[in-house]
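dumping this here so i dont lose it
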């Protein structure tokens, strides 16, 4: 089986660690790498939870900044005054909000 780009990077890092640090450094490197990956995943999940909570809160309380009328969750433009929404709208099926 052929390696893709990410696997080659990992193999290169292991070879460099072996060359400069010896065999004792490999377990320490793996432990540090695992911790860093875990922190990254926890941070990513926390940000996603905050975004979901903010979207849920915003969908309930959206008001037009100009006239104060209530906006629907997916409305980009105010029906009353015609002004554009001032914050992103979550598009269905898309993980990133659009402006």
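and the seq i came up w/
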């Amino acid at each position: 089986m052929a390696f893709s780009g990410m696997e080659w990077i990992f193999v290169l890092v292991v070879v460099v660690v072996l060359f400069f640090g010896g065999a004792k450094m490999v377990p320490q490197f793996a432990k540090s790498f695992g911790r860093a990956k875990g922190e990254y995943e926890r941070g990513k999940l926390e940000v996603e939870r905050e975004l979901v909570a903010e979207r849920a809160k915003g969908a309930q309380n959206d008001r037009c900044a100009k006239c104060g009328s209530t906006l629907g969750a997916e409305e980009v433009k105010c029906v009353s005054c015609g002004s554009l929404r001032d914050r992103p709208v979550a598009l269905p099926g898309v993980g990133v909000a659009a402006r």
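Residues 25-61 form the longest helix (37 residues).
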